[in-house]
Amino acid sequence: MTEALSGELSRVLPGTYKATVSQFFGMMLDAFDLVLVLAMAVILADVFLPKNVPALVGVFAIILSYTITLIFRPLGSAIFGNLADKIGRKRTLIVTMIGIGFFAALPGILPTFAVAGYLAFVLYSILRAVVGIFAGGEYAAGHPFAMEWAPPNKRGLASGIVQGGFSIGAFLAALLISVFISAFGKTAVVAIYWRYIFIFPLIILILGLAIRLTMEETPIFKNVEKKKMVERFPLGSLFKGEVRRDFFQVMLMMTGMFFFAYALFAFVPAILEAKGTLLGGGAFYINAYSNVTAFLAALSFGILSQKFGRKKMALAWCAMTFVLSAPLYYLLFQGAITGNFVLALVAALLIGAVTQGIWGIVPVYLSERFKTSHRGSGVGFGYSSGIFIGGWFSIYVPLMHTYLFTSIDTATNIWFSTAVLLMMGAVIVGVGYMIGPETVGSSLSEEGKLVTPAGAE
User: Fold this and answer.
1) Is 0.85 topped by the overall pTM?
2) CA dist 55 → 242, 406, 413 (Å)
C-alpha cells in the first residue's frame, strides 16, 4: 500500500470510527427518506392524489416526485461540495444532516388531497426538492470525510460500511411500514398513520447529529488548509485539464449506478404489490428483507475490492448482473402474482444483493478519483451527475412498459421493463469502469500518487 503522506493515516484512530459511523448514519437517513417515498408509493398516491387516478398511474406519480428530489441533488452537491472544500467537511456535514432530517419529516404535517386538492401534491413535491438539495450535499462532504479518516488498507471496509448504511436505512423504513400495515391495516395507514411514519427521520437525525458534533476535521484537509492549498473555486476544477476527463468518466459510471439502485428501490415494491396477492403486509416485509442482503453484499464488495481491485470486481459484477437480471425479476413477478411468499422473498433477496453490492465501493472509488482540494466537489457533483440521465428512471420504465414490453410485463406489472433498466445499468457501469483506472493504493493526500498493488492490476 501507499506510504503515509501528509495528513494520511497509517492506522485506525478514534476519528476513523466516528467518521465511518457518522457517514453510516448519513446514508441511513438518506435511504430512510427514499424508502418512505418509494415503498409507500401506493399509500402516498391515495393521500396526495384524487381517488379516481388508476393505481399504477398514482404510483408512477409518487415515484416521479422522488425524481424531483434527485433532480435537485446536483445543485446540493455543487453548493455543499464546494463548501466542504472551502471550509471543511465536518461543518458542512452538520448542516446537511439537519437539512435532510428536518425536511424529510415535514410531509407528515401536510394537508391531504381531500383537504387541499392538488396543492397537497405541489407542497409535497416542493419538500422533495429541498430534501434533494441537502441530500446532494450529504455525500459530497460525507464520503470524503469518511475515506480521508480511513487508513489506505481499511478504505474498502470503511466504504462498504458507509454504503451499507443506505441498505440498513432502507430496511428500517420498509420494516417500519410493514409493521404499521400489519398492525393497523392499509386503510387506517392511508387515513392517519402515514403521518406518524414521517416522524422517524427525526430520530435518525438526533443520533447522527450527536456523533457529528463530537467529530474533528480530517488530518488530510487540515494539511491542505495549513499549506494554503485550498482552491478559490473547487467546483470549477472539475472542468479543467485532466480532471475534466476523470469527472465525465465518473458521471458515466454513476449514470448506470442509478439504474442499479432504483431497479430495487423504485420498482420492486410496485412489482410485489401489483396484484395484492401477498396479504398481511407480505409485500412490504419482502421489500424490507431485500435490504438485508443488499447490506451484506455492499459490505463484502467493499472488503473484496481491497484485495482484488475496485475495477476488476466492478467489471465482473456488471457481467453477472446483465445475465441474471431478467431471470431474477421473472421469479419476483411469479412470486407476486401467485402469492408465493417464499419464491418472492428469495427473488427479492437476490435482487437486493445484485443491485446494491456494487455500491459498496462508490464512496472509496469516487474519493480516490479526485484530489483533496476539490474532492468534496468531485465526489458530490460526480455522484449527482449520474442523475442527469439516470435519474429519469421514473419515466424510462413507464415508457418501456407502455410502448415496448406491455405484452411481456402484463398490463398491471413492470417486471421485464425493470429488468431491462437493470441490464442497461450493467452495460453503462461496466463501460464507465472500463475506461477508468484502478484506484486501490491511491493516496488521498494532496501530494499523493497512484500506487496500485500487483494483485489489483
Assistant:
1) yes
2) 49, 16, 11
